[in-house]
Amino acid sequence: MTQSAVVGVAASLMMVAGLSTAAAGQADGRAWLALGDSYSSGEGIPGTNDVANAEAHQGRDCQRATGDGTGATAWSVSARGTVSEQLGISDFVLVACTGATTGELATQIGEAEDRLGRDRWDLVTFSIGGNDIGFADVLKGCLDADNLPWSAFDPSPGCDVNEAELRRRVDELRRTLTTTYDLIASRVNPGGDVVVLGYPHLVEETARWDRWRRGVIGNCEGIQSYDVGTLRSATGYLNEQIALAVSDADGRHGSEGIHFHFLDISQDPYEFNDDPGSRHALCSADPWLNGQTASVTSGDWRIERSFHPTQVGHDNTGRVLTTLLEGIRLDDPPSAPLPGDENGQAMPLICRMFEEAASGESGIWPLGNDLELYGGTLHGPFVPGEPFRLIVLSSSGESIQQYTLSPDGVTGPESFGPEGPPGLPPAEYEFVVGTRGVAINTISDDERVCGWFL
Amino acid sequence: MADNRHGLAGDDMMRSVLAAGAVLLVLGAGGCTKDEFSGESSTTTSADTSAPSITLPEGAPEPSEDAAGGVLEFLRGEGAPLLVVHEAALSLSTDAPGSDACAEVADELDGEAPSGEIAALVTGVDDEVMRSALHSERVALGTFLTSCVDGERPAHDELQQAVGSVATRLQQLEDAG
Lengths: 454, 177
What we know:
A: alpha/beta; disordered C terminus
């Protein structure tokens, strides 16, 4: 790509950036499809509706916090009330169901089609994947709640599944997510958006537990202190892999104008920072999840509500979703593919630079089987249309190259030189400013090794 | 959920358990570290046995009157098997049972308070501290009995700590309710 081409595409970027702040006034008549599992259906909220015919569709009791006739509102319902007008949403359907796996989303879509008489959607939101890795059964194992004889207890109480096994299951899920997201994209109108939510950590870090809990009781709602690290690590890995799958899906479907977004609720709103008042897992000072409880005092005996977000959790998740939705349009035009996407190839990885730069860390970002980009710091704020700097370090730290990207193009060195950074095969690299982001491509074969979106 | 089909009516059971808990707390105050199986004792008797040594450290939230009332009502009714388990745990935590005695206790509990039912009943306790304490007690009792029935000599530490936590919280609930 030539410099003039870069500038040309950057001009498009500027136009898109300018438009993206003016979501108001979009055409109406659009439809929002709320899919997902129990974290999407509102299972944790007393007063959910036992939806008629849901069992016929999905083969199980699907209670949903639709807000119809009760104050129980799942996060999608909460956000809908705020952003529907702005996004031109006139149809909304919540078909999420407790226990749903990726393989059941097609059935949920079928239920939605039957109920609303349409087969294309402008906005799709959901959380999915937790049941694919058997998280509910993992938790049951952690609680040692089986009806064993009193003389035949597990001599080693706690979780029966170790972290390696959980990660293996997540890796397996990752492959499934590709086809799942493609299926969903096939039901989205051009220009529409898909928002995938991650999962909150269930239990607060043990180091943050109150002293009486750490020192005497040793568990949080039946989860032993020594299992908390495993569960938190597995949840973090699950969110990370979902995020990567979402980024890949965005790369595959961006040219159709269909954009995928990942909302990491484990951070915002559940654990926004280190302030105890900003942390809301179980055994924090202000938990937004149910513990192991049958809600006796409310008269609501669904044990399934255990370990699920409360109404407050859903309200706050709805709040962060609203913030995301206020920044999108549902009529993005299909765009010319970014260089490297001409063959419909998926971007292999979205760099984690944002997170790492935000946390002040630098590291090694794996870019494939044999490619790695060493070090680096992204200097923000990273605002579409605004300049930012990217400093790339060689692995030895001897070479520092600085680039400045702006709507006018790229200034500074435009390549790493013919030898490339240590650890990378000889090739030339260039930044490419596209309509949706910036990518680093190898010039030699146009293979994209790293990229990220605005 | 379970019926109140146990030998003691709920209120009687509660009084019995609280009284037994007081005994345990007093024993705890004496710093009893006796090895029940060998008969060796390193008891460090204290002249003052009025202050319990098994307490929840500062910071455990105090139960509100309403919450305490609800929990106690549950324990006197449907949750009564939880007190059966607590009483058994209390007894074993201060006793030196042999394998046969442990097997007998386990058999009785399997009939009166099956472990799965207890796990379910714990979820009905609307006090997070008590819920976590009861969970610890259930697991500690189960592992103690399993080890004991197998002819091993399980340590009392975890069971005593779990029983003490339940007893202390129970007393706090009584005081608040």
